[in-house]
Structures are given as structure tokens and as C-alpha cells.
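User: Could you go from structure to sequence for me? I need the amino acid at each position, not a summary. C-alpha cells:
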């Protein structure tokens, strides 16, 4: 739900997706009416050189990708769209450099009152607790409930109670500043926004699967696993687990016919990972029933493997039902009606999610 947004069509975007193992980027034209158009894309693994720590390696990769966008992407954007200029830069930052927080602000009076934009501005100006070393990169209203009912046109209505669901994206402060500095050197636009990946994924999934109201998003990166719980179309809970594919595959690489003794270490890792997911979901299921649909995000080479792990009987037992879970790996073809790839671009799920999120941000 985009409040206070001005309509702006069309807009050339540089899209940057940063996760624990790679940096992806794309040049795209985005407007609020037509399918998204991506003209150029690139993705590079983050591989630390000698004497580099993880942040230094990530920042160097961001700079390298930014250089490729300007040198190789801009001419293609100019050829395809008539101009190589970029108006906006949208950056999605994933684990381990981001956190996402949800809070609900409640307003109630003894007598009916008029719900106004001034009240919302006052809510957003409140300082929610921010962990040390982090900065608030973005804050958005996920939903406004008036007298218990969600509405997209809340202003001017007389009510007794309002509940405002606010999502805050928090990014490591030093990392945020260094990412901005690197990208501003590549592009001379002041319109640069950083978003935590969880908020990007939630908004994008509402656009991508509008008829799904209750589902889990499980995002498995190299360093972490993040779980988002959507109930009646609203993001109600988020959990993060400090185990990802790097931990899962620490033993011998998985295969259909692996030797149990040689792979015992890996099987232990798989159990720890599943137990952590079960524990996180148990905390959520104590409050409300778990949905039967799971959307899985992971690097393409890991999707089948992780989908099989999520079919574990230990995980399924949480639902207390014989109905099968729907574990749906998210793949590029799911975006075909909303996004077109042209020029020198390759399908990329994470860049597609960021493109959908950016389109939503342009809505009036």
C-alpha cells in the first residue's frame, strides 16, 4: 500500500540486489501501467580476496557491478529505450546486513474521531527502537485497519479505533553509507533508496500472487534463512535463522545416491536447519494457524534440494493435518505476465522482485 506517493511514469531504474553470496543488478523501465521492462542484467559472486573481510568483498563487488551497468548496460538502455540515463536507484539488502521489524500502532478515543494524514505522519515520526549499529533505511505502512477492518482509502473517515501496521527496514549503518557512496560514484542521481529484502519480498509477492492471502515465504541465502508469515494478505511475523546453504552443504555435496557415512556431517546440518525452522514456526503457530502454502526463494542450483528438505515429516507435523503442504519454488517464469526481459538481460528472480517492489512504490 503506497501512501503519499506521486505518480511518475515512466522511470528508468538501476536495480541492485545484495545478498550474502552475490550482487545482482539490472537496468529497467518501470511505470505503473505497462509490464516491467528489463534491458540489461548482471550478477557476480562475492568472493573475498586475500586480506578482505566479508563487507569489503561485498562493497568491491557492488562497485564492480555498478561499473558494468554504466559501461555495458547504459549503451543497451540507450539503444532500446532512447536514453541511457537512470532516474532512480533501488537497492535491496539481504542478510547478514539487514533486519526487518514490524510494529502495530494503535489509536483509540472515547469518542469518534476523524482519521487523517496528520495522524499517520505523527505515527511515522515516532522513534521505534533501533539496534545499535543499524540505521532505519525505509519505513512503510503495510496496512491501516479502521475499527478492525483493513481499508485502502482511510482518510477522512470517522472512527473509534485505528491500527496502523508499520514495517521498518534496518541496515547496518556503516554498510549502508558505504553502499550509497559506491553507487553514487557510478550514478549521479540523488534518488537512491535502500530497502531490507524482507520488505521488498512481501510487497512484491502481493503483486505477484494477488489471490494468495495466507502463505509463508522462506528465503534461503548462503548465510541465513528468513521466514515471512503472511496472514489475510498482511505481513504479521518475521523470523531469521543463522543457517543457510553454506551451512547445509558444509559436508559432501548432496546427491541422490550419497554414502551415509561420508555425508553424516551434512545430514546433521540438515537436521539442525530443519529443527531451527520448526522452532520458529512453532512460535508462530502458537498465535495462529500456519498456512499450507510455502513460497521458496533460493539460488537456482539449490531449489530442488531445499524443496525436498522442506518435505520433511518433522516439518509437516506442525500442521497437525494430513493435507499436503504446497512448497512452490519461485522461478523466473512466474513473472512472465508482469515483466519482460529484453536486450542483454537474463531472468533473475531477486531482481524481478525488486522491480515489482519499485513499481509499487511509484503508485499514487
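Assistant: Here is the amino acid at each position, in order:
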Amino acid at each position: 500500500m503506497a501512501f503519499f506517493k506521486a505518480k511518475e511514469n515512466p522511470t528508468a531504474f538501476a536495480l541492485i540486489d545484495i545478498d550474502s553470496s552475490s550482487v545482482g543488478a539490472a537496468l529497467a523501465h518501470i511505470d505503473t501501467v505497462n509490464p516491467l521492462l528489463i534491458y540489461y542484467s548482471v550478477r557476480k559472486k562475492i568472493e573475498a580476496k586475500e586480506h578482505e573481510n566479508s563487507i569489503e568483498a561485498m562493497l568491491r563487488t557492488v562497485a564492480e557491478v555498478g561499473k558494468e551497468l554504466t559501461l555495458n548496460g547504459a549503451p543497451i538502455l540507450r539503444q532500446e529505450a532512447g536514453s541511457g540515463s537512470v532516474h532512480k536507484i533501488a537497492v535491496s539488502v539481504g542478510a547478514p546486513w539487514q533486519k526487518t521489524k514490524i510494529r502495530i500502532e494503535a489509536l483509540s478515543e472515547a469518542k469518534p474521531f476523524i482519521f487523517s494524514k496528520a495522524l499517520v505522519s505523527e505515527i511515522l515520526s515516532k522513534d521505534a527502537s533501533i539496534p545499535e549499529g543499524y540505521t532505519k533505511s525505509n519505513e512503510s505502512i503495510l496496512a491501516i485497519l479502521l475499527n478492525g477492518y483493513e481499508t485502502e482509502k482511510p482518510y477522512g473517515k470517522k472512527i473509534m479505533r485505528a491500527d496502523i501496521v508499520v514495517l521498518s527496514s534496518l541496515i547496518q549503518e556503516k554498510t549502508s553509507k558505504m553502499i550509497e557512496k559506491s553507487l553514487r560514484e557510478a550514478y549521479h542521481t540523488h534518488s537512491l533508496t535502500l530497502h531490507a529484502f524482507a520488505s521488498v519480498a512481501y510487497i512484491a509477492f502481493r503483486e505477484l500472487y494477488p489471490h494468495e492471502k495466507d502463505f509463508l515465504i522462506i528465503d534461503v541465502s548462503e548465510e541465513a534463512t528468513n521466514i515471512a508469515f503472511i496472514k489475510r494478505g498482511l505481513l504479521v511475523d518475521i523470523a531469521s535463522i543463522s543457517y543457510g546453504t553454506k551451512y547445509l552443504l558444509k559436508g559432501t555435496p548432496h546427491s541422490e545416491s550419497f554414502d551415509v557415512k561420508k555425508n553424516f556431517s551434512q545430514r546433521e546440518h540438515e537436521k539442525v536447519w530443519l529443527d531451527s525452522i520448526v522452532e520458529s514456526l512453532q512460535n508462530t503457530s502458537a498465535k495462529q494457524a500456519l498456512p499450507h502454502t510455502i513460497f521458496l526463494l533460493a539460488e537456482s542450483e539449490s531449489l530442488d534440494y531445499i524443496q525436498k528438505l522442506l518435505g520433511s515429516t518433522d516439518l509437516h507435523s506442525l500442521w497437525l493435518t494430513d493435507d499436503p503442504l504446497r512448497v512452490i519454488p519461485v522461478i523466473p517464469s512466474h513473472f512472465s505476465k508482469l515483466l519482460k526481459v529484453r536486450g542483454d538481460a537474463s531472468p533473475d528472480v531477486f531482481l524481478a522482485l525488486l522491480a515489482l517492489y519499485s513499481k509499487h512504490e511509484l503508485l499514487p
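One structural detail worth keeping in mind: The first strand starts at residue 11 and ends at 18.
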